[in-house]
Structures are given as structure tokens and as C-alpha cells.
Amino acid sequence: MGDLKQHSLIKAQERLRDQVGHALRAALIAGQLEPGRVYSAPTLAAELGVSATPVREAMLDLAREGLVEPVRNKGFRVTEVSERDLDQYTELRTLIEVPTIGIVTRIAPRERLEELRPIAEEIVASAREHDLIGYLEADRRFHLTLLGLAGNERLVETVGDLRKRSRLYGLTSLDKAGLLVSSAEEHLELLDLMLSGDAPAAESCMRRHLGHVRSLWADQADQAK
Fold first, then answer.
1. Do 87 and 180 fall into the same domain?
2. Phi, psi of 76, deg, nearest 5
3. InterPro entries in the record, alphabetically (predicted)?
4. Domain count of the chain?
């Protein structure tokens, strides 16, 4: 019985580590954790209402993903992403996601595509309600689930990693400027095109969507200078 209890505790700790990691990633993408700034595990743990251990473990996971870097005896520094980095990540996503959208449009059953409509609507609703964390989570689920219909798990993992690395620090500014809703509505447009079976149009919409997000970030970054 003792071994089973210990196993249960380990699994619970692993789940908490994943939950903390997800919360920290969302905060990074939304700009709540600022690039270049050092954060200590105890401070973050107090804000999240957990112990420092799962926070340290989650931050080590983020460090392996290149999102933060350890600072000896201080904590973790949020890595900065240059515009060149963002351009390259966007280029990679375009090379992968645009043709994959065409494939999914041709092979995915309509009912599987229709299952994504509530998520697309959730993205729009979150943007209108200024719920950035909700927006990011719904956006992640929509894109990765959609790509998953192509049947290539490694592709989904690769895009998921690119999404983490290409976090947009200007998301809060986009929301305040009222530009996030138009980007959110493109998910419904994409879904409708795919349901119509128009693969070339769906690919064009996906390419425009990725470029739109990148250009909006660049415009907001320039205004902030």
C-alpha cells in the first residue's frame, strides 16, 4: 500500500507541474511575464498559490524550450525574442501549416471540422471579452487540433513548439487597440472555407492569418518605440 500511495503522490505532483507550466506559458505569451526580467520561483509560487517546487520544475521545462534561462541564486530570466526570430518562426509555421491545411481540407470528414466551430467561436468571444488567457488557450486548441486531422503527431508537436517560441509580447497592445477581434474572426472564415472543400482558398486564408498576426505585432512594436 505504501508504494501505491507514493506512486499516486508522484502522479499528482506531475500534474501540478504541468498545470503550473501551462499557466506560466500563458503568462509569457500574454506579456504578463516581461522579457529580460528575472523572476524567482517563490515569488511566482506565491502568486499562483502553490509551493515553489512545481514552479521550479515547470521553469526548468520552459528553460529546455528556450522560453526562460536560469540565473544562479536568483531565479529565471524571460528570454527576449527578436523580430528576426519572429520572422523565422512565422516562415517555418507557414511552410508547415499552409499545405497541411490544404491536406486536411481534402481528407477530413465534415463532422470532424464542424466539431471545431465551438472552439473558433470561443476564440472570438474571448477576444471580445479581452480574455487573453482564454484566447490563447482556445487558439492553441483550434490550430493544433485542426493540424492533428492530418494524422501526423510529430507535425503537431513541431508546430506546438514553434507557437511557444514565437509568443507575441504585443498581444496586450493588440487587444487594447481593438485589433485582436479581427484576427480571431479569421478562424471562423478558415473553418467555413475548409467545410466548403475549397483547399486553395483555405490555404490562402491560413497564409494570410499567419502573416496578419505577425504584421499586427510588428505595427504595435513600432508604435511603442
1. yes
2. -135, 135
3. GntR_C, TF_FadR/GntR_C, Tscrpt_reg_HTH_GntR, WH-like_DNA-bd_sf, WH_DNA-bd_sf
4. 2
How many beta carbons lie within 10 A of that of residue 135, not counting itself? 27
Nearest Cα neighbor of 196 from 114, 120, 121 is 114
For cell 513600432, what's the residue? 222
pLDDT of residue 6: 44
Give one word for 130, left, alpha or beta, with left for phi > 0 and alpha for psi -120 to 50. Answer: left
Residue 17 has pLDDT above 90, yes or no: no
Q: Which of 78, 112, 140 is the last residue of a domain?
A: 78
C-alpha 141/C-alpha 2 separation (Å) is 38
Gap between the terminal Cα atoms of the chain: 61
Extract the runs of DSSP E, i.e. beta strands, from 52-206: 68-71, 75-78
Residue-wise pLDDT for 89-105, tens only, equals: 889 999 999 999 999 99
The residue to which cell 481593438 is assigned: 178
CATH code at 61?
1.10.10.10
Task: Give the Cβ contact number of residue 181 at 10 Å.
Answer: 17
C-alpha cell at 156: 503537431
62 and 147 in a single domain? The answer is: no
pTM above 0.90, yes or no: no
The answer to whether the beta carbons of residues 171 and 184 sit under 8 Å apart is: no
